Amino acid sequence: MPIDRSVKIAPSILAADFANFGAEIGAVEAQGADWVHVDVMDGHFVPNITFGPAMCAAIRPHIKTVMDVHLMIDPVAPYIDAFAQAGADIITAHVEAGPHIHRTLQAIRATGAKAGLALNPGTPADAAAPLLDMVDLICVMTVNPGFGGQKFIHSCVHKVTELRKMIGDRDVHIEVDGGVDPSTAPLVAAAGADVLVAGSSVFKGGSVSDPQPYGENIRAIRTAVQDRQVRPSHPQRASGST
Ligand code: DX5
Ligand code: ZN
Questions:
Q1: Model confidence pLDDT, tens digit, residues 192-210
Q2: What digits encode the pLDDT tens for the residues 153-164?
Q3: What is the position in ligand 1's atom list of the atom closest to the CA of 178?
Q4: Which helix (H) or strand (E) segment is 8 a member of?
């Protein structure tokens, strides 16, 4: 069955309450999140440190949809099995993280997880060309990775358009990560992105005891992209599907 190319909102728990991940995930899924995006940072590939496989395993039982793990780490290879065992549905590695991205993608798929490839803002779309048949998702970074709440880099929108053309009829998602909000989401959806990672714009104004703002924020993004997405050829949506 072809993949679901309708727009999916993937809140990044980088913007959630770190002391309350289980409840935050339950709240944001109840408020309409399609996937849950988990940002893993090592203080080496990016100038920030978040969490590792043990934390991913701990939150896994709270995720009913899709656990989308974004590895901003170098090296990647020694940790792939641990993130797969932690229950990641999708494991995304950066093309810039080490010399062996081809081998890394093979290793991710060998675990049974779906393989994602992330491109930093300074990396051209062409970097993905030799890898298109090895990936299930391409993550276009629209900020320099490392922190939430940064300003969307508009020059990255064209990369989404280029990748959409390059992908053709392959079953590959295009995810956009960084600075996504109701003003920028329509631009990337129109260019062909179908997975929109959003941290601060989803979690702002809410909390586990007052989660309605999460739903309002998610709906604001969805409403903004409506009718501006490249028409999916198979528009069916199933919660928890990749
Ligand atoms: C950045 C992370 C993003 C980040 C997005 O390094 O990969 O997922 O959490 O946060 P916002 O939506 O706040 O830009
Ligand atoms: Zn991310």
A1: 999 999 999 999 999 999 9
A2: 999 999 999 999
A3: 14
A4: strand 8-11
